[in-house]
Amino acid sequence: MTHPVIIDDEEQAAVSELRPSVVLEADPARSTYGVSDESCSLCDRHTWSVRDIEETGVGFRSSGIDATTRRGHVKHWDRVKDHGLFVKKSSLRKVDVFRFPQRGWIICTERFRTHVVTSGLTNWSFDSVGETF
Fold it and tell me: Beta strands 85-87 and 130-132: pairing type?
């Protein structure tokens, strides 16, 4: 389990929200997402879910409390090949962190994931939700 970093009282550190400035569309022909028929009464957006990721628990983390031990746990399922969200490499235009307009997920490229892992930054988890093509 990853714990938050504790900063000494004498040490000043800025706290920032990670908010990607780029929004990209998932390729509708290759991606396996479904869009609801009804739109939100507040924002008029249609909600969508990613088949074989959100609906069946494949390709994401599920957390909860173990009833016996009363301790938190995380379970991970691998994404099914050829399922998920697909983005054209040409649309990335050297962008490594982005989001989709339909979801609040922060998505990153393998290059960004590798940088975070090798730099020793903490409190990150990465789950496969798709691929570039």
Answer: parallel
